[in-house]
Amino acid sequence: MARAWGRLLTAMVTPFDGGGAVDEGRAGELALALLDSGSDGLVLTGTTGECPTLTVDEQVGVWRAVRAAVGAEALLVAGASTNSTRESLEMVEAGAGAGVDALMLTVPYYNKPSQAGLVRHFEVLAEATPLPCILYNVPSRTAVNMTAETTVRLAAVPNIVGVKEASGDLQQMAEIVERTSGTEFMVWSGNDADTLPLLSVGGYGVVSVASHLVGRQIASMIGAALSGRGAEAAAVHRRLAPLVDALFIESNPAPVKFALAEVGFGVGGLRLPLVAPSEASQDRIRAELARHAIDLPTFAGR
Question: What is the arithmetic mean of pLDDT over 240-248?
Answer without folding.
Answer: 98
